[in-house]
Amino acid sequence: MNDRLRSLQDLQTLHRELRIRQRAEEERREREAAQARLREQEARIFELTVGTVVKMPEANRVLLQPGRPSPEPLQRMLDEQAAWKQALSDDFDVDSLLETDETLSFRRPEITQESVRKLRRGHWALQGQIDLHGLRRDQAREALGQFIHDSARRGLRCVRVVHGKGNGSPGREPVLKARVRRWLVQKQEVLAFVQARASDGGSGALMVLLNAT
């Protein structure tokens, strides 16, 4: 008797689950049908608004071929621009652009004093250097301009320029020290420079912050 009662209860439970599933299925179908009717109504609204679409005839059409532009000497222009960027003047007035600290550092207006302090403390890792010892003035100017240009193109951020302390020069005066500052200020890639720390060359070198491209 108990087995028959349990079987009857299981059957009733199964019927309830089937009815629940059936109602869920019917609700899903009703939602899909409602969404389909809504899409159809929206399509009809577009058709009524736009009206009948007629394809344009293809006859009497002329396909115009755009004229080819005349060749331009791009490489020559690039070479001239590069040469212009490297043309550094010895007569450039740099004194008004240098900071009035003891090392005559330099920074462009968009560079903060904090950036200069970081450069002086060695915040940026040294990524390259050029040593101008033993070069004549014209050689040093050309080598420095090319070095700054190439370093910026390579994405270098901080480089060192060694110009010497002048110990081996007549009168023990540094020949390139003032000129190097004058040349660096003229390079647009140079954002700032400071005298190197004693461990990096001291008064015989500059740490330069570049606008890497």
Automatic annotation (TrEMBL):
Coiled coil: 8-44
Single Gene Ontology MF annotation: endonuclease activity
InterPro entries referenced in this protein's UniProt entry, alphabetically: Smr_dom, Smr_dom_sf
Top-rank taxon: Bacteria
Species for this entry: Roseateles terrae
Residues in Smr domain copies: 130-211
UniProt xrefs under PANTHER family: DNA ENDONUCLEASE SMRA-RELATED
Keywords in alphabetical order: Coiled coil, Endonuclease, Hydrolase, Nuclease
Lineage, top ranks: Bacteria, Pseudomonadati, Pseudomonadota, Betaproteobacteria, Burkholderiales
Protein name per the record: DNA-nicking Smr family endonuclease
Gene3D superfamilies: 3.30.1370.110
